[in-house]
Design goal:
about 350 residues; about 55% helix
Length: about 350
């Protein structure tokens, strides 16, 4: 007769558990983001370094404050808020005023995360919630770009970086002219293609030598970060692949129909923030569906909607709104794609 004392407890399935913790996953995502941030700082200088430091620090302080107010244990140790701060900074223009970046970070944590109960309960990606807020609140600053690799980028700041609160950011056109930069129109590759049908060489998109948000850096570095996370099984590879596949499905027919007007699929994948979003934002484990089929539906929806907004909307970039809408319908996707329980009989 077996000794009953040897049986400690009975537990329900699943009995197989992954040894990796949330903090370990989040820490590895930060590791994968570091090269992206480093290249962005190298391309745009100290302004981006201060931008990333501001968004990350304000996110951490806001997280600590909201945890204290709500009586929850501080969640700073799980590294998730560091990811929010870095991703938010990477979605902003290099010369974005620091006080506006601080507002974006506070809103990202307050409205995007703390309001819903903290990590694991947020409905939408917090970084994109903060970015969407400042896009509505500060439309001029959020669409003011500066070229990469300017001389003196490590000895001086972009003039708009230190703009005083509630003051109009200083125009950077004259500052750029002093650098003797020729043929800089202030437009991103997406804007040039959409409004002027001017295509940017793929080599520049691959290496990130273009104007745009701080995170519109080297697609190669972003992909390497995604491969690192997928290889360590800390990211569902189907999510970025599904987003890119959805973008190709929509863009390819239009390009074949009129190549002079519509961009080719490679340009669609490498331009703007699609690559950064596909690897580091769509893969958010909290806001994405939990079913295998739902993951594909969710990723394809975001990729396809991004291209639809780019081609037919008033905005040059649509990935932010595509992800937020995908986050909103993610619970519904999980509900309708639930696999059938083994042995279940259809109701008459």
């Amino acid at each position: 007769m077996a000794d009953s004392r040897a049986v400690k407890s009975l537990r329900s399935s699943p009995h197989l558990k992954q040894s990796v913790t949330v903090a370990q996953i989040m820490r590895n995502v930060v590791f994968a983001l570091i090269p992206v941030c480093a290249w962005s700082v190298y391309a745009f200088g100290f302004s981006v370094l201060l931008l990333l430091a501001t968004t990350t620090l304000v996110c951490m302080l806001s997280e600590a404050m909201f945890c204290r107010i709500s009586g929850r244990t501080s969640s700073l140790g799980d590294w998730s808020i560091v990811i929010t701060g870095l991703l938010l900074g990477l979605t902003l223009p290099p010369g974005f005023p620091l006080w506006m970046a601080a507002v974006a970070a506070f809103v990202a944590v307050g409205l995007g995360k703390a309001l819903f109960g903290g990590l694991g309960y947020n409905v939408m990606n917090p970084a994109l919630v903060g970015r969407a807020f400042v896009q509505a609140a500060f439309p001029v600053a959020i669409t003011t770009w500066s070229p990469p690799f300017l001389p003196g980028r490590f000895t001086e700041l972009i003039p708009s970086t230190l703009t005083a609160p509630f003051m109009m950011p200083e125009p950077i056109d004259a500052w750029i002219d002093q650098k003797s930069i020729d043929a800089f129109s202030g437009a991103t590759p997406l804007a040039l293609q959409k409004f002027e049908q001017v295509s940017t060489p793929l080599t520049e998109l691959l290496t990130g030598t273009v104007s745009g948000s701080a995170g519109e850096t080297s697609a190669i570095i972003i992909l390497l970060g995604g491969i690192y996370l997928a290889a360590r099984r800390m990211m569902d590879w189907r999510l970025p692949v599904g987003v890119m596949l959805g973008a190709v499905i929509v863009s390819l027919p239009f390009w074949l129909l009129d190549a002079a007007r519509y961009p080719d699929p490679l340009f669609v994948l490498l331009s703007g923030g699609l690559m950064l979003a596909a690897v580091f934002m769509v893969s958010d484990m909290v806001a994405s569906p939990v079913t295998p089929l739902g993951v594909w539906v969710y990723a394809l929806f975001i990729g396809m909607l991004t291209v639809v907004i780019r081609l037919f909307g008033g905005l040059t970039e649509g990935v932010m709104y595509a992800i937020l809408l995908g986050n909103a319908i993610s619970p519904l996707i999980s509900l309708v794609t639930q696999p059938k329980v083994f042995g279940e009989r259809n109701k008459s």
